[in-house]
Amino acid sequence: MEPRISLITLGVTDLERAVRFYRDGLGFPLSSASVPGEVAFFRTGGAVLALWHRASLAADANLPPGGPGFGGIALAHNARSKEAVDAVMSQAQAAGGRILKPAHDTDWGGYSGYFADPDGHPWEVAWNPGFPFGPDGSLQLP
Q1: What is the gyration radius of the CA atoms in the chain, in angstroms?
Q2: What domains can you pick out in the chain, each with its CATH number?
Q3: What is the distance between the alpha carbons of residues 11 and 41, in angstroms, rounded to a whole number?
Q4: CA distance to 44, 85, 96, 120, per residue, from 52 (Å)
Q5: Long-range contacts: 33-41, Cβ < 8 Å, 24+?
Q6: What is the DSSP letter of 109?
Q7: Which pLDDT value is given to residue 70?
Q8: Exposed (0-12), middle (13-18) or buried (19+): which is 82, by Cβ within 10 Å?
Q9: Which of 18, 23, 109, 130 has the highest Cβ tally under 10 A?
């Protein structure tokens, strides 16, 4: 297997609400590959973010749909500065997201906070001075 994540799919309870949050609220570009009412695909500068009905995603993976809550995974967005972290957190909240942990200075020398999208999927927004960005905007690990 090549070490690459191509697509991240979030199971959502209300596809239209989720599309509004990511497209209109956060400014993610919606792909024409999306099928209205069924599945939405967003370009992110790396992996594709997909939104699909939670029950359909669970059925496709042969899993019970379960309830909302922490699923043992968090998505992350690295920002270029502390100020950018604060701006993203404010943008997410204004779009209908819920602040889980306000942005703060961390013990590892960065700045980080968490918000949840309307379906409760947690996102960390962080600035890490040890993880610069490459010319293409990708995160460069040491």
Answers
A1: 16
A2: 1-62 (3.10.180.10), 74-131 (3.10.180.10)
A3: 13
A4: 17, 27, 19, 14
A5: 39/15, 40/15
A6: S
A7: 66
A8: middle
A9: 18
C-beta separation of 26 from 95 below 8 A: yes
Q: Output the six-digit token pair for 105.
A: 């200075």
The CA–CA distances, whole Å, from 44 to 15, 33, 119 equal 18, 14, 19
**pTM (predicted TM-score):** 0.85
Q: What is the pLDDT of residues 22-41, one digit of tens each?
A: 999 999 999 999 999 999 99
How far is the C-alpha of 131 from the C-alpha of 138, rounded, in Å?
Answer: 10
Question: Residue 30 gets which letter from DSSP?
Answer: B
